[in-house]
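Suppose you are handed only these lines of text.
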Amino acid sequence: MKGNKGRPARGCGYALPLPIAVLVCSAFFFLGYYISLSNNQEIVVENDVDRIHRQQLLENGETVQAAHGVTGDDLINVIPFQVLSWKPRALLFPGFANKQQCETIIKLAKTKLTPSGLALRKGETADATKDVRTSSGTFLSASHDKTGTLAWVEERMAKATMIPRAHGEAFNVLRYELGQKYNSHYDVFNPEEYGPQKSQRMASFLLYLSDVEEGGETMFPFENYQNMNMGYDYKQCIGLRVKPKQGDALLFYSMFPNGTFDAAALHGSCPVVAGEKWVATKWIRDSVER
Ligand SMILES: *[C@@H]1O[C@H](CO)[C@@H](O)[C@H](O)[C@H]1NC(C)=O
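From them, the structure of the protein bound to 2-acetamido-2-deoxy-beta-D-glucopyranose can be written out as follows.
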């Protein structure tokens, strides 16, 4: 721009002394340039290329990284899931663990099985409730597993739920033989029935360690708040039923995000009709206090 000394500059339309006009014009020019840079077409395209490339790498099973914080992961984990229900909040993770990992956990548990126990309500006796839960089981902690399998499962589960590992109880590995079952129940401990609690089982994670030929489904009789007014006997196998499949994992929440109990989280294990059912359960607490 060639200005005439002493005459008003016309660049911005108004009569301004030339140096000021140049300053104002260039200020707007650079502001415009800066704005166009921040929404720049080229940068968006570059991101798209990046994303497509990353997708291709992932599909080829190659290693991909994203910028991450100090406590984050180096890699992108692929954990497929299906929302089974919002009432209660339940997710299936198909192929969460592989066959060998499942068999390792069964082997660890096999030598230590004892009849499964039950948390008793005030006034209940072990003898009167012995038919409620007929499986055998054992508690296994990851720190006692030299193969590292349980630690691997815990780690992956913490990632899938974003609830730190320390909130989990030890694994309760269960075996259900022919006809064995677990009547429908809640995992939360209502203080009115069980007395004051330091923390609650807010979510439950089940890793199916075996296929079951027939029966043995995990059932949610009150799914979508159905069947709640029919005088349900806690034994009948109704509602949403999840068929155990070796390596699949099921996660459901017994509490709403606001901390109150979800009545739809009632669940049980249907009787095994043919075959045998092995499952590793982990209860996730709302605090590290027990
Ligand atoms: C907690 O959340 C549930 C589900 O959204 C809702 O039905 C219930 O009224 C809430 N309770 C309180 C005390 O906020």
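What can we learn from it? Residues 18-38 form the longest helix (21 residues). The pocket of 2-acetamido-2-deoxy-beta-D-glucopyranose is lined by residues 256, 258, 260 (CB under 6 Å).
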